[in-house]
Design brief:
The structure holds two protein chains of two kinds. By secondary structure, chain A is mainly alpha-helical. Chain A is built from 18 helices and no strands. Chain A is elongated and about 80 Å long. The chains are: A mainly alpha, B mainly beta.
Chain lengths: ~525, ~300
């Protein structure tokens, strides 16, 4: 009998394996936590766009003895809590990871969904995405690395400016959380002493919604659902009463409108000015570049955002950007150039599996959330591990996000200043896909070095890890065969300088961090 | 018939040799107990148009995608009604245009046990259980260049056959393949319009079925076939994106197969063409093989393998 049983067991397992229909991979969950530090003084931190944390007026809340407030508490206990569904609980657990964390994750997902270059049409042209018709083919936006870096920068800045404003009012009005006012309110998430008005989750939701609907105008219905779920989750979890939420949402939106006013005039509208390219090529030639970059796609695709270098930077001015621009790279046919090309040809011949792994791990190419978002994720995960408050998480992602946008701008300016050819113009293939813009310097190296520099300042105990990540991300472009070594080395040192300017900002923002 | 036959399967379209050798033989032909047949086969499969979701398109940055494979395969008669079939391919991919680096390497080892459940007056019913395991450490998600999906698979199959005394035969077969999750190099990917923050990728299971009509007698086999395979679930290639292992690939192909094996040595030739598909290449494949058959133990009774 015994042996028969084991045979049946084996057969059962085989059948289970073969016929298993559960083909869904779960995203790793994030456990909710109480912040290790409430950052009580965050209301004194320096905003990016607002002139002060008093720019937006938040009305004084009803007192804890006011009948209107008591009714809100009563409704939490006696109306909402008994009606919480399993789906509501799922939403509570999801948003319990943190509103800043989740809204950045949502932004990364949107970036990935929109990061596909337009297809060529029958006339051999590449139609431009149209913001007024975002879901037509090609979809708007093409969320390539510069676009995504910019979206995440504005998201981070809006969340940060909105949250320091919220913190100012939280400690000004000091409304206790529902569960502090009434012990019979049973919160579903970890508690803290943070005043609840306005709700930090709703502030982040309102700010994020405003930025992301502008950046991804085809996703308004999706973002509507996320906005309402985020706000409701705080109520289902009994972390807030509705007046905390509505005020927070309105505050977040008001701040983000001011932040997005900068976005409207930051030069992005002219970033794809293709009329400039003939002059850019001539200028590069006058600097000694003998084989300017040519699109390697068929039909030839106009370069990605040739005027992105003119977009407004965050942490340094344009004179500084010129001063830190990397020097001219090795010229085609020089010994140094030939050495770099030989390295690529030799990898092409005998790429190791480990080189391929590194190239793939950091590729973040078409259809992915792009390198600046990879660093956004690394930062957000580090913030969760460190149990950061919402406001400190926002500060982290604003410092990182602005550094990434600055890195994109300065790198693009360099790319189109020198207009250098890709290795593919000399017979090299790629194992990761070829970006459609000039080679020098490597965007991955610049983004990653700036990111590692900023994160090393914020999480000094992990600085060596981040530096190693940046070096690996930089190497990945050589292993993937789309950058010469000099592109990567110079991008790394450029990125370090760019990151240092974000650190200067961080050190002088009043946080004392 | 004096000599046994060996059925082989070849690359069937898709964006890699995804189905290829993970499949179990889908015919009702058996090796005699105590005999073994070794096959060396060369295959080439190529497409210059593919279905991006439902849109049939070309891609000037791919040109023609070609998968070449070299395969060693063996079929062994373990008992009168029981065969073991095993194979291991080496695969190479390349594009005629664009910059994507071709991939190459040993793909997946596959083994199948095929058992004849019933045989009477030319009618037979067989069942096959097979599995495949990746051997090479290749990259699974650099499609359409990857040489496979690096998934462990298990297949169950039923094969019905009717053989007329004239040599004409009809085979119907249907199978189900379970495919394991795979691990990719990247730590996040987009599928089903969601970002998955993990290296694990779920690969849809598949079903397949087909009909073969042919002639088999005196060491000659000739047949035509129609086959269809379907992923159970999966997502679609997005507009102007590259394929991904989670894609809902399906297709129908038609083709022909001939084999001539008058003695120990034999040759075979196979042709297949995809006539309809979804998230796959419209591929045309040709294969040619050399077979060598011998007895690995003395037999006490002789038996023809196809009656």
């Amino acid at each position: 009998m015994k042996s028969k049983f084991s045979i049946y067991n084996v057969l059962f397992l085989v059948a289970l394996f073969i016929f298993s229909c559960d083909k869904v991979i779960d995203n790793p969950g994030i456990e909710s936590y109480s912040p290790f530090n409430l950052d009580v003084k965050a209301g004194t931190w320096k905003p990016y766009i607002l002139t002060s944390v008093n720019d937006i007026i938040v009305p004084e809340p009803k007192s804890s003895t006011d009948p209107i407030y008591l009714k809100e508490i009563d409704s939490l206990k006696n109306y909402i809590a008994p009606r919480v569904t399993p789906e509501n609980l799922q939403a509570v657990a999801y948003w319990g990871a943190g509103a800043v964390y989740r809204w950045n994750e949502i932004a990364r997902e949107l970036a990935a969904r929109y990061n596909i270059p337009p297809a060529s049409n029958a006339e051999g042209k590449y139609p431009l995405p149209d913001a007024a018709n975002p879901l037509a083919d090609p979809k708007f936006p093409f969320a390539n690395p510069p676009y995504t870096a910019r979206a995440l920068a504005y998201l981070g800045v809006a969340q940060y400016d909105a949250l320091i404003t919220a913190w100012n009012y939280k400690y000004k009005f000091n409304r206790l959380a529902p569960y502090k006012n009434d012990a019979s309110v049973k919160p579903l998430l970890p508690i803290s002493d943070l005043p609840s008005y306005p709700s930090e989750a709703a502030v982040v939701a309102g700010a994020s919604y405003t930025v992301l609907t502008a950046m991804f105008p085809g996703e308004i219905p999706y973002l509507d659902s996320k906005l309402s779920e985020c706000k409701n989750a705080s109520i289902w979890a009994a972390m807030n009463v509705p007046s905390d939420i509505t005020t927070g949402d309105a505050l977040g939106k008001a701040v983000a409108v001011k932040v997005m006013a900068r976005a409207k005039t930051d030069g992005m509208a002219a970033a794809n000015n293709q009329a400039l390219t003939p002059a850019l090529i001539e200028a590069a030639k006058s600097r000694g570049i003998i084989n300017p970059w040519l699109s390697q796609e068929t039909p030839a695709r106009p370069p990605m955002l040739p005027n992105y270098g003119a977009v407004a930077t965050w942490n340094f001015d344009k004179a500084t950007m010129t001063a830190i621009r990397p020097a001219i790279p090795f010229i085609v046919e020089s010994n140094e150039f030939n050495k770099d090309l030989d390295e690529l040809l030799s990898i092409q011949k005998n790429q190791t599996r480990e080189q391929a792994r590194i190239a793939n791990y950091w590729a973040d190419g078409a259809g992915s959330y792009t390198p600046p978002a990879h660093w956004n994720r690394i930062a957000a995960d580090a913030g969760v591990r460190a149990k950061y408050s919402e406001v400190r998480m926002a500060r982290t992602l604003a410092l990182l996000g602005t550094s990434q946008m600055d890195a994109g701008i300065a790198c693009w300016e360099t790319k189109f200043y020198y207009y250098t050819p890709r290795p593919q113009q000399f017979g090299v293939k790629t194992s990761v896909g070829l970006p459609n813009f000039p080679s020098y310097t490597s965007g991955h190296s610049t983004f990653s070095s700036a990111g590692a520099t900023v994160l090393g300042y914020i999480f000094p105990d992990q600085a060596a890890t981040f530096t190693a990540y940046a070096q690996e991300a930089s190497n990945s472009r050589v292993y993937g065969l789309i950058h010469y070594r000099v592109d990567c080395d110079m991008g790394l040192s450029h990125g370090k300088k760019i990151g240092d300017y974000a650190i200067l900002r961080g050190k002088s923002d009043g946080s004392g961090l | 018939m004096k000599l046994s036959s060996l059925s082989i399967l070849f690359i069937i379209c898709a964006f890699t040799s995804i189905r290829s050798y993970a499949q179990t033989p889908s015919d009702a032909i058996y090796m005699k107990s105590g005999t073994i047949c070794i096959l060396g086969a060369y295959s080439q499969s190529s497409w210059d148009k593919y279905w991006e979701n439902k849109l049939k398109r070309e891609n000037f940055n791919i040109g023609t995608n070609t998968t070449t494979s070299y395969m060693v395969m063996a079929a062994m008669g373990l008992a009168t009604n029981l065969n073991l079939i095993a194979g291991l391919p080496y695969i190479q991919t390349k594009n005629s245009a664009g910059n994507l680096l071709g991939q190459k390497g040993i793909q997946d080892f596959s083994a199948t046990l095929k058992y004849r459940l019933y045989r009477q007056s030319g009618v037979s019913l067989s069942a096959a259980l097979g599995a495949s395991v990746p051997v090479g450490n290749y990259v699974p998600d650099f499609l359409p260049m990857s040489i496979g999906l690096h998934s462990v698979s298990a297949t169950g199959r039923i094969i019905f056959n009717y053989q007329h005394k004239t040599g004409l035969y009809l085979t119907l077969h249907g199978g189900y393949t379970g495919r394991s999750d795979v691990t990719v190099d990247r730590d996040a990917y987009l599928a089903y319009d969601q970002v998955f923050n993990t290296r694990k990728v779920a690969i849809p299971n598949t079903t397949d079925g087909g009909i073969n009509i042919g002639y088999l007698k005196h060491g000659i086999q000739a047949m035509v076939f129609l086959e269809k395979f379907d992923c159970l679930g999966g997502d679609d290639i997005r507009r102007n994106d590259m394929p991904f292992p989670t894609n809902d690939m399906n297709g129908t192909d038609v083709g022909g197969y001939i084999k001539y094996q008058p003695s120990h040595f034999g040759v075979n030739l196979r042709y297949a063409h995809v006539i309809q598909g979804h998230n796959i290449g419209e591929s045309t494949s040709i294969s040619a093989g050399i077979l060598y058959q011998f007895a690995f133990k003395s037999m006490h009774k002789t038996e023809t393998e196809t009656k």
